[in-house]
Amino acid sequence: MRTETPPTVRLEDYRPSDHLIDRVELDVRLDPHDTRVTARLAIRPNPAGRPGAPLVLDGDDLRLLALDLDGQPLAPAAFRVAPSALTLPEPPGRPFTLTIETRIDPSANTKLMGLYRSNGVYCTQCEADGFRRITYFLDRPDVMAVYTTRIEAEEAQAPVLLGNGNPVESGRIEGTGRHFAVWHDPHPKPAYLFALVGGCLDRVAKSFDTREGRTVELAVHVEPGKAERAAYALDAVERSMVWDERAFGRAYDLDVFNVVAVSDFNMGAMENKGLNIFNDKFVLASPETATDADYAAIEAIIAHEYFHNWSGNRVTCRDWFQLCLKEGLTVFRDQEFSSDMRSRDVHRIGEVRTLRARQFPEDAGPLAHPVRPRQYAEINNFYTATVYEKGAEIVRMLRTLVGESAFRAGMDRYFSDNDGRAATVEDFLVAFEAESGRDLARFAEWYERPGTPRVAVTGTYDAAERTYRLDFRQTRPGAGDDAPPLVIPVRLGLVGPDGPLGEATCPQVEDGVFVLDAFEAALTFDDVTAPPVPSLFRGFSAPVRVDMAMDDADRLTLLRHDSDGFNRWEAAQRVAARLMIGALRGAATDAGADAFAAALGAFLDARALDDPAFAALVLALPSENDLADEIGAEIDPDAICSARRALRVRIGASLNPRLRALRDALAEPAGTPFSPDAASAGRRSLRSAALDLIAAADPADGTALARAQIAAATNMTDRLAGLSTLALLPGSAREAEFAAFAECYVDEPLVLDKWFAIQATIPEDGTIERVRRLQTHPAFAMTNPNRVRALVGSFALANPTQFNRADGAGFALTAETVLALDRTNPQVAARLMTAFGSWRRLEPVRRAAAESALRRILATPGLSRDVTDIAGRSLA
Ligand code: 0A1
Ligand code: ZN
């Protein structure tokens, strides 16, 4: 560990590699502490590189054992070696083979990058730059090679040996207790997509025929004894394959597709070619251990990693600045998949909630960056909501602009023109320009600057002319004063007192979309027979903040009558947010809250049973973090929490009989088998949303109902919802249920994560002590990223009142954890640090406390590059 001022990598400095590697033959002899890797690399000068340039292979924490060039040991004067690079100052100016033997210790690899052991299973994580921890290499995505991998291990320790591509050969090495497997991947790939796995694993499998006539063996591998929990993931793999063939014409291209679940993993999952490696949280599911949200996340992440096979693997990124090219596009693809599997409106609302909860605050704080960043000190810190989620929104806007059919044709062209290549954002846009005939040069600006745009809108009705005029004005906070206007697709329509005003027309609106491409623009609708309510940014057609003065009554008209599901939900959210923010500024009235409750009641009467999932979202008021984001400055989380609680109490009281009736109507008849499908999940979510509001207004009743729900629960969704409701109701019942839960799931780490998380998010003063106590619980481990995220991550990112305590105790707890973790796993430590991302928007006392915690972190000797980067940018 060393303190370093991280060198900055800049997009403008990109140049092609001076050398290329065409073929890699790896021989990996696995051993818990002394793994030997022999890499035979077929290297040649790159015609596009500098002639005669030295060969500098990347390394990280490696020990070199032997080095040959074309079969001859290299003289010591012919190379230089360090743990972080292997240099041949004068490599041959012709193709040659370099054979490198290195030694690594997978058991000591606590960073979980490169080759490591998770619960005894050997596995790898190479994105973004982990391959250099396995062997010296040109570890950059534009160096693409064909890999053959021989894996050898003690058979008792690792009976299953998996690699990229197709299996070629396997066998025992007689008399040694060892065995081997050889895998060959015919598709050239960058090193970040390399993977291997060795361990004791059970599996579920099935075969799948692609529409191109290839029979593929699909398999999901999990820890012994957990195979039946892998069935849902396997089914999701198959559904993903079918969907990508139909929706994007993309078929799978190998004979096997393996998914492996491991328990120690820094991120969600990884799309290694033919061998996706997953955090087990996103594979394992049974009704007793996984919630509906878990099932949905498994489906989405299985799909995401699978879809990368084309968007990321067949077509990869030229450099890490283009990360959104694979990630934004693949998120868009997995969102579309989930929307097709589930309810599109409900899914869209979920996508926007995530974007607003994670990306908007990032874009408004010190860690803001463009979707295509122009520089980085540590690339692993750029797997962000901006690159992923805002990146996906850009693809969605592109589809809105060019239309469905040109979009699909553009995707086909992008894949075929760039197949087997490392591409750029420009390569992506060119494909859509060619298919749509539209100049996308100005649209490309979306990739270039940070900040969430604002669009201010005013509407004017002219009764005499029967016209309605909308004036738009866009601004780009955070993007710089010279930022040009963005091309913003505004999907919109007008709504009257009884429903959408279909007859109103406007020449600039085509297929319901107006393209705002100047700082200011106006629209006029004709034939508007009554004062309308505008429904703007339907389906959240652009990732912007919309400022429009509109009274609650008009918004509630939208809740009732808009044809757009997203905007119906949005209308209720806006009213709720206005009421809560008004209350904390002393400007809201009880009458406003009561009118809102009445409107919600009418809405529930009319629609709740038709679409329970949607109704549950309407009842879930904007979160404390949503409100903080909207307030934007001088934030007092305690005041926000009280204002939100007060509105929930009022609504809960006013709707109590209805909510109880709804719960009864939605109760499942005894003996109904559990199904994770969207409709069943929707009914469960509305029942629990109702419980939550009942409990807010009547804690005694809420406690009784929550306990009854827990006692009667036949699945984790209902049980956990009961426990979450109880978590907000201090008292002995809560503690008794917490204790009973822990006892019941003592051997289920993923379930205990939920228990850690619920307790870490209790908005009470005692939570700090509770979290400290839980850090010493036998089930907690700083070495496991899921445990850390469940306990400390939930505290720092999802408990605004306690993380932001005015006495600084929340910041101190988080800072201590970050510093302790940084010694073993800097990547996860750096992620935890992002909780400080909104510190400048706090009121002065909290702001000062956060700043001093940040300064303390930054001043700590021996800090990793990962944490130095986040702390440094947070304070800049
Ligand atoms: N590419 C993966 C996410 C991922 C990124 C980085 C990792 O290590 C630093 C690991 C996984 C995905 O998008 O799913
Ligand atoms: Zn991805």
Automatic annotation (TrEMBL):
SUPFAM superfamilies: Leukotriene A4 hydrolase N-terminal domain, Metalloproteases ('zincins'), catalytic domain
Boundaries of every Peptidase M1 alanyl aminopeptidase Ig-like fold domain copy: 451-548
Enzyme class: hydrolase
Pfam family, one: DUF3458
CC cofactor: Zn(2+)
MF (Gene Ontology): alanyl aminopeptidase activity; metallopeptidase activity; zinc ion binding
Domain Peptidase M1 membrane alanine aminopeptidase: start-end pairs: 232-445
Residue ranges occupied by any Aminopeptidase N-like N-terminal domain in the UniProt entry: 88-193
The EC number(s) this enzyme carries: 3.4.11.2
Keywords: Aminopeptidase, Hydrolase, Metal-binding, Metalloprotease, Protease, Zinc
Gene Ontology process terms (BP): proteolysis
InterPro entries membership: Aminopeptidase_N-like_N, Aminopeptidase_N-like_N_sf, PepN_Ig-like_sf, Peptidase_M1, Peptidase_M1_dom, Peptidase_M1_pepN, Peptidase_M1_pepN_C, Peptidase_M1_pepN_C_sf
Keyword Cytoplasm: no
Gene3D superfamilies xref list: 2.60.40.1840, 3.30.2010.30, Neutral Protease Domain 2, Peptidase M1, alanyl aminopeptidase, C-terminal domain, tricorn interacting facor f3 domain
The reaction(s) this protein catalyses: Release of an N-terminal amino acid, Xaa-|-Yaa- from a peptide, amide or arylamide. Xaa is preferably Ala, but may be most amino acids including Pro (slow action). When a terminal hydrophobic residue is followed by a prolyl residue, the two may be released as an intact Xaa-Pro dipeptide
Cited CDD domains: M1_APN (cd09600)
Protein family membership: Belongs to the peptidase M1 family.
Name of this protein: Aminopeptidase N
Organism: Methylorubrum rhodinum
